[in-house]
Amino acid sequence: VSSSSLSGDKAVAYNLAQEGIEKLRYNRDNGWKTGTGWVPSLPTDEQIPFGGRTYSRSYSLQADVIPDLNGGGNDIEVNYRRVMVTISWQDKGATQSVRAATYLTNWRLY
Asked: What is the 3 state secondary structure string of the chain?
């Protein structure tokens, strides 16, 4: 029963993580509409009650330049961002978590 409960929690967490990725895609696309640019704004961390548990959803965005390793200050701006959504929850006193990551691109350039 314990492993099936954990697998059910993980299924919920993966779906919440995917929903978070979709929020980031929406923010990226909405940025074009509002003129604020294509880099997605990160939503604030969320607490999501579901099925008797509370899941925490957090977001991260990887740096938007490739640093100049020669120290010349010629960093290269990239037209993609790696985004990650982490879902965590408590199960029998232990923190469980899953992550989903993807790259969002400035697809209007292509």
From this structure: CHHHHHHHHHHHHHHHHHHHHHHHHHHHHHHHHHCCCCCCCCCCCEEEEECCEEEEEEEEECCCEECCCCCCCCCEECCEEEEEEEEEEEECCEEEEEEEEEEEECHHHC
Longest C-alpha distance within the chain, in Å? 59
Distance CA 57, CA 13 (A): 9
Per-residue pLDDT reduced to its tens digit, 18-44: 999 998 888 888 876 676 776 667 778
pTM of the model: 0.78
